[in-house]
Design brief:
6 helices, globular, alpha+beta, 8 strands, 32% helix, Maf protein, 8-stranded mixed β-sheet
């Protein structure tokens, strides 16, 4: 039976999309469910290219299954769109979550509240047996706080500093709201997943 595998070993990412699939009665798996974990070097210059690299790497391991790979960038208006696709390597080397938070806030020192706009942008690459790779994307807008909130999620450094004005909560706080509330306010990755659902359903029927 063809399985849908979300090509990430990041538990935050996997849990974020799992609730969307579960709500639509679709089962997804992590590579870790099968004892598989690979490090894909993100050498692409765009989100699409990096998502493609991941999709190709995992389809080699799971050739008979459907692979969903993604790449996400954060674009801060006042920083000219930085860090873009280089969130984890913003300073030229692999950074930990707290260093990313500190670096972002330091770079934005002195920038007033009305000028701290930012957005998340996710691109999904969907691959399957005998199918060409198809892309779906999602964008989620907000603002960067001047101080981080206390909550943390490993692998999600922007969650405590990305503020959603219309909801008056951070992205991290959104993910701790009741499921019904979360489903009403899909994030960038979830929006991309929602766009992909009709295509995925057609692949597994």
């Amino acid at each position: 039976m063809t399985k849908i595998i979300y090509a990430t070993t990041n538990p935050g990412k996997f849990n974020e999309v799992k609730k969307i699939f579960t709500h639509h009665n679709i089962t997804i798996y992590s590579p870790m469910d099968f004892g598989k974990s690979i490090e894909v070097e993100e050498t692409g210059s765009t989100l699409e290219e990096n998502a493609l690299l991941k999709a190709k790497a995992y389809i080699d391991i799971f050739p008979n299954d459907i692979i969903i790979a993604d790449d996400t960038g954060v674009e801060v208006d006042a920083l000219g769109g930085e860090p873009g696709i280089k969130v984890r390597r913003w300073k030229g080397y692999k950074m930990e979550d707290e260093e990313i938070i500190e670096h972002c806030l330091l770079r934005m020192t002195g920038i007033k509240e009305g000028s701290r706009g930012a957005q998340f942008h996710t691109v999904l690459a969907v691959a399957g047996p005998g199918k060409k790779i198809v892309y779906f994307d999602g964008v989620f807008k907000g603002q960067i706080l001047q101080e981080p909130k206390k909550e943390r999620e490993v692998g999600m450094p922007f969650w405590p500093i990305f503020f959603i004005p219309e909801l008056n909560i951070t992205l991290g706080e959104l993910h701790h709201m009741p499921m019904e509330f979360q489903l009403l306010h899909p994030t960038h990755r979830e929006l991309a997943v929602l766009k992909s659902l009709p295509y995925l359903v057609s692949m597994i029927q």
